[in-house]
Automatic annotation (TrEMBL):
<dbReference type="InterPro" id="IPR003856">
    <property type="entry name" value="LPS_length_determ_N"/>
</dbReference>
<feature type="domain" description="Polysaccharide chain length determinant N-terminal">
    <location>
        <begin position="4"/>
        <end position="93"/>
    </location>
</feature>
<comment type="similarity">
    <text>Belongs to the CpsC/CapA family.</text>
</comment>
<feature type="transmembrane region" description="Helical">
    <location>
        <begin position="18"/>
        <end position="40"/>
    </location>
</feature>
<dbReference type="Pfam" id="PF13807">
    <property type="entry name" value="GNVR"/>
</dbReference>
<dbReference type="InterPro" id="IPR032807">
    <property type="entry name" value="GNVR"/>
</dbReference>
<dbReference type="Pfam" id="PF02706">
    <property type="entry name" value="Wzz"/>
</dbReference>
<keyword id="KW-1133">Transmembrane helix</keyword>
<feature type="domain" description="Tyrosine-protein kinase G-rich">
    <location>
        <begin position="144"/>
        <end position="196"/>
    </location>
</feature>
<dbReference type="InterPro" id="IPR050445">
    <property type="entry name" value="Bact_polysacc_biosynth/exp"/>
</dbReference>
<protein>
    <submittedName>
        <fullName>Capsular biosynthesis protein</fullName>
    </submittedName>
</protein>
<feature type="region of interest" description="Disordered">
    <location>
        <begin position="231"/>
        <end position="250"/>
    </location>
</feature>
<keyword id="KW-1003">Cell membrane</keyword>
<feature type="transmembrane region" description="Helical">
    <location>
        <begin position="174"/>
        <end position="194"/>
    </location>
</feature>
<keyword id="KW-0472">Membrane</keyword>
<keyword id="KW-0812">Transmembrane</keyword>
Length: 250
């Protein structure tokens, strides 16, 4: 029963402070929209796919153990792609004004489970740069693997392509606005509850009972203001009688 009463009280507080809650939610959404659309720089992504497969002659067939060995190599290849051995050559070839660490943060490598295909994705503020970096990373990796691993089992499946109207991957404006709305709503409700709980003034009979621990036995009804503004003499007869009484006293 007490829990139900507390929930009802909270709902009353929310209803009472609804303007504050809605205002903070709208402000948060507006700020998030302005920042997402006009402040943050769009980031584009380009990706290329690399196939890891041991090359065989026409008379040889690919055995299951060969595929398993190639799958085990993929984890090693993922690390090699983002290593300075590859990225330093990419920076040199494209004349990028970046450090190896900065470029490594732009490059992400992944592969589907039980798949021999490695996906190399690159994010950049300019789409054509992302395409160039992705393709160059794949090319340099393909060139360096025979030297590093003494194998030639890398093939570029699909290079990154420059799009006419690319869509940016960051920021996600709608997601940012939705998150801001939730945060603004939580902040508004929190402030509303905080203001109500910190307010110690007595407003109702229940507040008096809780403060004194005594039951209420009576209430003084408010007196209408018009009772104090009545004319002292509403009729001429009353005015005449009052005048006569004053004359007798004299």
């Amino acid at each position: 029963m007490e829990e139900t009463i507390r929930i009802q009280d909270i709902l009353k507080i929310i209803k009472k402070r609804l303007f504050l809650i809605v205002s903070l939610t709208m402000i948060a959404m507006i700020v998030a929209a302005v920042v997402s659309y006009f402040v943050l720089t769009p980031v584009y992504q380009a990706s290329t796919q690399i196939l890891v497969n041991e090359q065989k002659s026409e008379t040889e067939s690919i055995q299951t153990q060969d595929i398993q060995a190639n799958l085990q190599l993929i984890n090693t290849y993922n690390e090699i792609i983002k290593s300075p051995v590859i990225l330093d050559k990419v920076i040199e070839r494209l004349d990028l004004n970046k450090t190896t660490t900065q470029l490594s943060e732009q490059v992400s490598v992944s592969n589907v489970e039980e798949s021999q295909v490695i996906s190399v994705a690159v994010e950049d503020e300019q789409h054509f740069k992302a395409v160039d970096i992705a393709n160059t990373v794949a090319e340099v990796f393909q060139e360096e693997i025979p030297i590093l691993m003494n194998v030639n089992n890398v093939t570029i499946l699909s290079p990154a392509v420059q799009l006419e109207n690319p869509s940016h991957v960051k920021p996600n404006e709608l997601m940012n606005i939705a998150i801001a709305a939730v945060l603004g709503l939580m902040l508004g409700v929190g402030l509303a509850l905080l203001r109500e709980f910190l307010d110690t003034t007595i407003k109702t009979e229940q507040d008096v009972e809780e403060l004194l621990g005594l039951p209420i036995i009576g209430i003084v009804s408010p007196i209408p203001e018009k009772e104090f503004t009545k004319r002292p003499y509403s009729t001429d007869a009353e005015l005449s009688r009052s005048k006569k009484r004053r004359e007798k006293l004299v």
